[in-house]
Amino acid sequence: MIRHAVLADVPQILDIYAPYILNTAITFEYDVPTVSEFEARFLSITKEGPWLVWEENGRILGYAYGEKAFVRAAYQWAADLAVYLRPEAQGKGIGKALYTAVEDILRQQGYCLCYGVVTSANEKSCAFHEAMGYVKRAEFPDCGMKFGKWYGTIWYEKRLRDGIPTHAPCPPEDADLHSL
C-alpha cells in the first residue's frame, strides 16, 4: 500500500492537496499550483528526500514527503516533513504509516532531526505530531493570514538519531529502502 511516488502520480497528489489550499488554513498557500508547477516541486524535493504515497486499487489516498528543512550547510541533517490525506483516509492509521516510513528513510539517509510545521488551524495535526513523539519547540502566533484571519504556526521536532554525524545525508536512492 505504501510506495515511492513517481512523476505520473502528481495529478492525483495535487487533487489531494488542492482542497487544503482552497478550503482550509492548514496550508498557507493561497493558489493551487498548476500540474507543471507541482511537478517541478516534486522533482526538487525528490532529489534529496523521500516522497511516498498510500495507494489502494490504483487510487492514491495520501502522501508524505521529507525535504531539507533549511538551506544553510549546518542544517543539512534536519528535514521537514509533511503529510496530506483524502478525507476518507483520515483516522485509519494511513498518516501514521506514511510518516513512519518517511522517518525511517530519512534516518537511513543520515538525517538526525525532523520538523513538522503545523498551522494553528490544524489541531488534529498538533495531536498527531505529539502522538508520533514530536516535541513542541516553537510557536509563532498570528504569523500568517488566510481567509481574512490571522493564524500561527507551531514547530514540532523529533530526533531521529543522537551523536555527531560522520557524513552528510545520502541521496534517497542510496538509502536501504527495502523495509517499506
Features:
4 helices, single chain, 7-stranded mixed sheet, 180 residues, Aminopeptidase, alpha+beta
Give a written overview of the molecule:
The protein is an alpha+beta fold and 180 residues long. The chain has one domain (2-161): Gcn5-related N-acetyltransferase (GNAT) (Aminopeptidase). Helix content is 28%, strand content 32%. The chain contains 4 helices and 7 strands; from the N terminus they run βααβββαβαββ. It has helices at 10-23, 35-46, 94-109, 123-131; strands at residues 2-4, 51-56, 59-68, 78-85, 113-119, 135-146, 149-159. A 7-stranded mixed sheet has the order 1-2-3-4-5-7-6, with helices on both faces. Strand 6 and strand 7 (149-159) form a beta hairpin. The protein is globular. The termini are close together.
- Counting helices, strands and paired strands, the structural category is alpha+beta
Question: Radius of gyration, rounded?
Answer: 16 Å
CATH architecture: 3-Layer(aba) Sandwich
Order of helices and strands: EHHEEEHEHEE
CATH topology: Aminopeptidase
How would you write the strand order of the largest sheet?
1-2-3-4-5-7-6
Q: Under the CATH scheme, which class?
A: Alpha Beta
Low-confidence stretches: none
How many E strands?
7
Q: What is the H level of CATH, i.e. the homologous superfamily?
A: Gcn5-related N-acetyltransferase (GNAT)
